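Our platform keeps sequence and structure together, in a single record for each protein. Nothing more is needed to write down the fold, since each code stands for a local backbone conformation. An entry from our holdings is shown next, in its original layout:
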Amino acid sequence: MFRALVLVIGLLLHNSCNNKAETKKEKKEEPTPVSLRSTDYDLLKPVKGWALSDSLAEISGITFLKNDRLIAIEDLHPILYELKFDDSTGTIVNKLEFRETDKEKFDFEDLAAVGDSIYALWSHGAIFKITKQKNAYTSERTKTWLKKENNTEGLAYDPLSGNLLVACKDDAGLEDEKKSTRAIYEFDTRVDSIKPDPFMLIKKSDFENVAGEKIDFYPAAIGIHPVSHDIFIISTKDTKCIAQFSHDGKLKAFDYLEKEMLPQPEGICFDKKGDLYISTQARHGKPAYIYKFSLKTN
């Protein structure tokens, strides 16, 4: 009887230890929050998605025109692609060449529409102002003091100032800032030049309070919400994510992007209602896509 009692007690102690070990193990495997403060959009559930043709495999920028048509640009050619959407495909309905393609090499990164003009951003800091002259489109190239090292990749129209915001993916152009700091500059459309002081700075440590960790952030696209004027910036190198800032540059929210859906996101814009559009380049046998996202409903 005593021997049987000892055996029962031993089994109970053994099971108790195992349960404690499993509980500890479960606690260790609990995932950290995706974000402490998430953005206003449900980025896991697009309202629509449109596959693009091979011509836009390297799509790098998107924006809406006044007639609500969306136009896109890809890296290597000075051509604007006007798109029309059906249920699942974005069809090119017009190609607008704004510069001779055989005389220069290009690396276009983003687009912005200002009134009847369209601006295209080159990765070395130059900005092309594109206008329609009779039946053709022409462009004027403006060199800025931003260079290859700054790697300018994001361009957006700011309705509050009438100027353009230019996002630097790499060097912030400031001697006293850390290498991880990123800068957004303002291009004055009245005098066609970039202001010397940054419009806003993005620092690695800023993300701790909203993402739960420090983030290596490399701006690849920038868009401004038409109503709130919040600034949304996509990072696509290393960490694929999106950050939401107030117009005065304070970080409000952050989300990681879904890599299978958005393997190389490099374009962002809003329609008049505030719906969000993100474009991604073709990767892993999947064509380039544009996705539409709506505000979260609580």
Q: What stands out?
A: The chain has two helices and 21 strands. Confidence is low (pLDDT under 50) at residues 1-33. The longest helix spans residues 2-29.
